[in-house]
Amino acid sequence: MSGFPQSLQLLHGVRRRLMLQRLVTRVFLVTLALAGVYAAALLAGRLTGLWAAWFEPWTVLLVPAVALVLAALWPRRPGVQDAAHIIDQQQQTRDLFLTLTMLDSCPGEYQPLVGRDAELRAPKIKPAEVVPLQWERPTFISAVVLCVLLAGAYFVPTLDPFGKVAEAREEEDQRKLLEDSRKITEIRRAQLKNKNVEAENSPEVEKALEALKAGFSEMKKGDRRANQEKLKEHQDELGKIFRELINSPEVKKLNAEGLKADQKLGSLGEEEMFRKMQKELQQGSSESLEQQVDELKDKLERLTKTTDPLEKSELQRQMQKQLKELSDFAGKKAGSKEMQAALERAQQQLDAMKQEGLSKEAMEALQESLEAAQQEMQMLAQEMRDMQNLEDALKLISMAKQLNSKDQLEGEMGAGNMTLEDYEELYQQLMGMQSGSGSDGDGEGTGGRGMGEGGVVDEDDGIKTDFVNEQSKSQIQKGKILLSLKTKGLSDSGDIKDDNYRRVIGEIRQSLEDVIEQEQIPPGYVGGIQKYFDTLEKRGE
Q: What pLDDT is stored for residue 341 in this prediction?
């Protein structure tokens, strides 16, 4: 056939159009078939609720896409002889072009005659006339069918006779909550990592204490005013940090007195355990609390390994109870909202472990929440150590001021690498030396213990010194008003009837926190002071 180019061009053109037309037809037929399957599955899923979640509206687009792929992979494709047969039928050429395609198997004397006739007819035949493309109607019908499916995906209601829809929805909600809680835990753990909660002190307090230690080494004997200014700077810096700590909710809760009647946390033995944990936290230790978390981790490991349903149920019950009690302790006694939140997330994640589809994710999230809770405990203990060390440092500054007022403060007296404890011991020795250590017998008048020689000590009140009066007016001056209101005689038992007395008590009670903060009262005395004024206020009422 290579010697008949016009005929070959016609045959190939018709063959291509024939392939395209058959593809359109096949896509149309497969689309209708798949649409029927989709509609049946959609109705079955929505009415039973078994696989209703599969049929989202976008899945309707899968019908034409899959139909196109199947039609393209259809094994039967039209050949050259199919094209020749179509041409002969449409042009009524009595199998001329079909014979042309079979010349290689025909006797040689017929080939020139057939080829000549085909070449004469080929230029007059148009492939578009032989195989016209008819795609409009199939496309319109397919579009209508897809619109019907789309409407069904949107509007066919989902029934739930077997409860599967509610179960799937609950699992999806749990999964979302689980993902959100893991993100919160991850962010909080990153924050705690930057705070270095395992260290003795927080970075801010450690820096301030190191600065104080360096300041002690720079004290110069004879330069009392400069020493006084430096000590005041350190006192202001440490006092600011101390006040922030002592006024924090966590420290206020921990410094409160023992468990109240409405704060029962478990049985009597468990209450003793929680009192112990509270006392340890007040002393800057979270050892007992962390032991509770270690127990929870051990139970979680056993829970993931056991296959006994009874043992699983018992372990989950024990863990829920333990997490609930620790969460209550964190909120009611430790005052740590972050610790309480971590433990509450752990409770939710333990509940999520009961669902088979979420057990692994929930277990990993629970482990992370327990780690975060443990870090929160360490940070709380660190805050208490910070407060204790700051309180000791402020006392040490007071000792240094006393020594400086008597020109006994000398930075060079401290050897290198001295700690604050070393400075405290040194200052105590210096203050002990100032008190004198004379022996019995006749003294020198202003020397140590013993019988003095009498006489008047030479003093001149007019001499100017570097003494700085550091006394500040305290808001507790209102106490003098209380004394001035007292009258002679016996008052009536139980009731206080003086309106001015009650008014002054109320004013002092309102400004009590400011007074405590200004006077830098040690935390051990705060509870007793507040209780005293609470008692006065109740009696006044």
A: 93
